[in-house]
Amino acid sequence: MGIKLGNGKWATKEDELLAYRVIEGKYFNRSFDFARSSTTTRVNKDGYIEDVPSDTARIDFADSVDGALLTEPASTNLITYPISFADDYWTKSGASIEPDSSTAGSELVTNNDFEDGSNDWDLESGWSIVGEKARYDASISGNTIRQLMSSIAVGKTIKLQFDISDVEVGKSAFLKIEINGIPEILLNYTLLSEGTHTYYHTITSGLDRVNFVPITSSTGGAFSIDNISVKEVQGFEAPKEIPVANGEELVTNGDMELDSDWTDYFTPTTNERSGVRAHTGTYSRHIVGNDTYDGIKQDGIAMAQNSTYVCSAWVYVESGTVTMQVRATDTFHIIGSSSSASWVKLSGHFTSNSATLNQRVAFICDGAGGEFYVDDVSVKEATSYSGGGLEREAYKLVEDTSTGEHSLASSVITVTGSADHYQSLFIKTAERTKIGLREAQNSGKYATFDLLNEVVMDENGLTAHISKLAGCWYRIDYGCNSNVWTTMKMKVHLLDDTYTTGSPSSHSYTGSGKGLYIAYAQLEEGSYASSLMLPVTEGSTTSRVADACTGSGTAQDFKDYNASGVLYAEIAANSDDGTTSRYISINDGAFNDFIQLLYLNTSNTIRAQLYVGGVMQVRIDHVVTDTTVFHKTAFRWYGNTTTAADGRFSLWIDGAMVESEDVSGLTIASGTLTTMDFDYLNGTQNFYGKTRALEVLPYMSDTEMSLLTSP
């Protein structure tokens, strides 16, 4: 028997994809070489998204119970904040983004109800404490009430809540809210009525204070504020698994039992082994700093480029805030922060994109110094990309009570003109079950979806899709052409039960606080919505390098198939783009003799062809209904005979011979074919698609061919 791949028998490791031959009942390795110099994602057996390390083939289970090899071209997610929908990158209209309030951390504001008067607050002119509330008398515009507080790192989400009361008759509270001195604006000047106000915000430059900045105007007057609360919150569980690390420990003396290996970072007053506190064992590391960045570090941690690492540590804070950072490039990746006077575990994972080994773990003071202890520090390479639970990176899109549209829109995104682009989003129903996606900058193209019935309701762009994952999550997508424009905007529309058809921007309804869950937005140039691409740190686009799968077999493996045989593949195209040919070939390593199956650069066309001496001798084309669904396809050749009842060369698809040719006298010389590749030859016109099975077989009868290719 010839080389086999797949059929539910999968194994991958770095740089290799298992293929094999069976000879006299024994299995012999005939692996493909595999390359992709970036991390990526797949849908795993459990139906969740999972990270895949660089140079590792993806066996994807999105639409295959037994798995399919997924190969894709390079692509880029043009959305720079695909996770943090609470960020200002996303504009909310008649709607808000809510994280999981049950995950709220400790209160960061002290004396938040003003029972201790003005203690812990800085009040400028125009502010005073009256009746255990902060009162603004509207005498001076722009003067603030402010509290400095323990910092929260970039990328974290906070919940800010406060009560407005005693508003001057005929006016409103006219407020801007800042969360650091840069400043980072949480709320730009907005008229607020009496009542409780809640805002969620993803931090982009750091949080170390809360400033309330009022304006006196014809609409903005005097008011009181009370019960000010700031807490860190997390998202809901998303359809993406957290990696697990059981590999070698890369940190030296992470348990702090030795008085070594941890050096000063900047200029801490104290960096010592201490027995005063310990999470486990006898000792921890005690640090006292007087300024921002004072702390400890460990250099020279051997982390490989494009590998994922799971990091953790336990910290106890006496004063201030401590942040754990890991350097994988010239900048730091933040693992977590704490201000708690108890042992708190900081944990997270990241992917190194640095080619150097000068990696660093550091624990530093945020703000004006502090005192803390560190123990049980760990950095390990991920050994499994699932099993660690689900990422908390989903959020709820919630309509307000206004009448109109209820939506979420990205910032304006630069795109390539006259090119197809696809938008995609992960969705889970809550009180709402209908949603729309729309290009809102220029074309207005859209698609709408009914998640309850798992159908596309309406579309006026490129083909829309809805696919189901685990945990009641769905991925929805649709495409549109940018035409003459070079900008796009992704817009998400909540739709109520009365919606049936038409642009979601034209559908108006009165909201009632209902919503649904969203995660992981993607906009990319291309003919389909490719696998999810997420950044290590948000704020820039994220790219995936193309897959390359080549080099299985030797001349010995193909010696019985030069004259006759069968090339069988159960395959599906990623898209029917009508412009790109995608090849699987058995060849001589040069452009002389080769046998190929391919998707042609003509809509929904499968081709089988054979070249001898660099000249095309046989070419058979057949049009199917849809190349993006799986077809069992086989090319049979029999070139070294003078008679063949059904044609020496035939193409079989899904149980039937669909086309044949009878060309006599052709033969490929013995020993000519040497290798099998997922491309035309030498890395050109790669096969990008899904492969459940691939096999080289001896010449088969019509009955055998029908059985081989029957669905």
Overview of this structure, please?
The chain is mostly beta strands. It folds into four domains: 233 residues, Jelly Rolls (Sandwich), CATH 2.60.120.200; 164 residues, Jelly Rolls; 133 residues, Jelly Rolls (Sandwich); 119 residues, Jelly Rolls (Sandwich). 1% of the residues lie in helices and 48% in strands. The chain contains one helix and 57 strands. The strands form 13 sheets. Strands 1, 9, 10, 48, 53, 54, 55 and 57 form an eight-stranded antiparallel β-sheet that branches. Strands 24, 25, 26, 27, 28, 29, 30 and 31 form an eight-stranded antiparallel β-sheet that branches. The longest helix has 8 residues. About 1% of the residues have low confidence.
Describe the global form: globular
Radius of gyration: 31 Å
Question: What is the CATH level 1 assignment of the largest domain?
Answer: Mainly Beta
Number of domains: 4
Q: Architecture of the largest domain, CATH level 2?
A: Sandwich
Number of strands: 57
**Largest sheet, strands/sense/barrel:** 8 strands, antiparallel
User: How is the CATH topology of the largest domain named?
Assistant: Jelly Rolls
Strand content: over 45%
Q: Roughly how many Å apart are the termini? A: 22 Å
Overall pLDDT metric:
93
Q: Please state the structural category.
A: mainly beta
- Low-pLDDT stretches are 642-646
Number of helices: 1
Q: Helicity level, as a percent range?
A: under 10%
